[in-house]
Design brief:
Layout (H helix, E strand, L loop, with lengths): L1 E3 L5 H8 L7 H10 L6 E8 L2 E9 L2 E6 L5 H10 L5 E5 H9 L7 E10 L14 E2 L5 H9 L11 H9 L4 E6 L5 E8 L5 E9 L8 H16 L2 E6 L2 H9 L3 E10 L1
Parallel strand pairs: 4-5, 10-11
Antiparallel strand pairs: 1-2, 2-3, 3-4, 5-12, 6-11, 6-12, 7-8, 8-9, 9-10
């Protein structure tokens, strides 16, 4: 049975999400922070034998999907086809492939990424993180200008307003290296922090400052912070050069991550 989930389903949802905590970072983070009744978030699930076996979460104009079997996939595809107010659905590559292979879903565009995890205190070489600072909501305009200067962020759904809201709600933790003229030279952020994990996003360096190790220092600073919290950091990437940085800092590829665009 595929239906909208409510707070009364929470224990069953947690039982499902806890099986793969890293791959479920976005799902767990959004549910822990915003619950089941927020106007911008809806949580759906497939139930079989009293257990949740798949979760589809709408967060504003995008979806996150996870399943452990083909059951309920056709129901998910029907929902995606009926609701035209979304731009992207994403999830682990196995779950997403079922939307195509079982549900017959045909996205307009597909992006594939490597998905990597770093458990707390994973071995890594020393990185000097002096001069890496934590951003506040007052830094949002600078961060927005930095991201606008990066070609890879051109298709992002993030706006300056949504970035500010993410800071104000406490969902974003951002660190940065300042540039010579007071601008942000590089930054890295964490979102969707939850009981077990958090997701590294927005790793970027202004073109003028590339090759100086600033992005490495930012991610290393996040590693230090989440080592202290005892939580696994996760991220996904499709840039081989970035992959080299992440492996050096203790991240290991464990799966694939896929985004479909309508």
């Amino acid at each position: 049975m595929f239906r909208r989930l409510t707070p009364s389903d929470h224990d069953r949802v947690v039982a499902y999400l806890s099986k793969r905590p890293a791959l479920h970072t976005f799902l767990t983070g959004d549910i822990e922070r915003y619950g089941y009744d927020a106007p911008f978030q809806e949580v759906y699930g497939h139930l079989s034998g009293g257990r949740v076996t798949a979760v589809l979460l709408r967060f504003y104009g995008s979806y996150i999907f996870s399943t452990e079997s083909p059951e309920g996939v056709e129901d998910v595809v029907r929902m995606l086809q009926v609701n035209t107010a979304w731009t992207m659905v994403q999830g682990d590559s196995v779950s997403m492939s079922l939307l195509q292979d079982v549900g017959g879903f045909q996205p307009r565009q597909v992006r594939e990424f490597a998905f990597a995890e770093r458990p707390p205190h994973a071995p890594r070489p020393y990185v000097n993180t002096e001069g890496v600072y934590q951003a506040t909501v007052d830094h949002v305009p600078q961060l927005w200008q930095l991201r606008k200067s990066i070609a890879e962020f051109a298709n992002s759904n993030t706006t300056e307003l949504s970035l500010r809201q993410s800071f104000e709600s406490g969902d974003t933790l951002c660190v940065y290296v300042p540039g010579e003229r007071g601008e942000m030279a590089a930054s890295a952020s964490v979102v969707a922090e939850n009981t077990w994990t958090a997701m590294v996003v927005g790793v970027c360096t202004r073109p003028l400052y590339r090759g100086l190790g600033y992005a490495t220092r930012c991610v290393a600073k996040l590693c230090d912070l989440f080592d202290e919290r005892g939580k696994t950091l996760c991220l996904y990437y499709d840039n081989p050069n970035a992959g080299g940085i992440y492996r050096r800092l203790g991240f290991a590829v464990t799966s694939g991550w896929t985004q479909f665009f309508r």
